Amino acid sequence: MKERLQKILAQAGAGSRRTAEIYISEGRVTIDGQVVTDMGVKVDPALHDICLNGRSIRSSEEKIHILLHKPVGYVTTLSDPQGRPIVTSLLTGISQRVFPVGRLDLDTSGALLLTNDGDLAQRILHPSFEITKTYVARVAGRPAAADINRLAAGIDLEGRRTSPAQLQVLRQTPRYAEVQIIIHEGRKRQVRKMFAAIGHKVLELKRIAYGNLKLGSLPAGKFRLLGEKDIEKIFAGR
Ligand code: URA
Question: Ligand 1, residues 204, 205, 207, 208: which to mutate, most atoms within 8 A of Cβ?
Fold first, then answer.
């Protein structure tokens, strides 16, 4: 059956459809040996040989979903020019070409989904699905209740208002506070910037859930394979 090229690439684990479009525009995709840069092309992968970066894709590859407890110090890109450790190096025994769904900063730990299913990644990342992400931030000092309420209501961040968030102070000591924050946006370094905006530096940041899918007691550096029920939990509770 004929499908749009970017959809086939995404289903084969090349990334989201948007990422696939970038690969196409960069001339990294061939059909039967011919470079294709036209986004409108429809092709039947059963009849034609589609290659990304010179490697044939197999759109029928089994879909695999992984929950990794990303340790601090690992990058969520698939390669790093600076030679820092990459998260996929932790996936021992996984032969499929999976990619992270969204990103976590080098200095953030916690739940990171990886999959070879571009459509699923697209649904999790697309703002219209409003998938919540839960973080626990250890912040310097003790944020005032009024400031916590400001973050919850939404603040101006780089010229754009953040969506309403849910915040709960879990613990306070004289030097720091631990705050749980639930957001559904995925702006770069968003949690750190939100706390910086109320004058509290984030000392440690951990993502503990996507939707209702919780990291639980999975140790740092370890992963587990996800089943259908786990995937449903990501979309539950919206
Ligand atoms: N917000 C941040 O500031 N950093 C992350 O890694 C994730 C969310």
Answer: 205
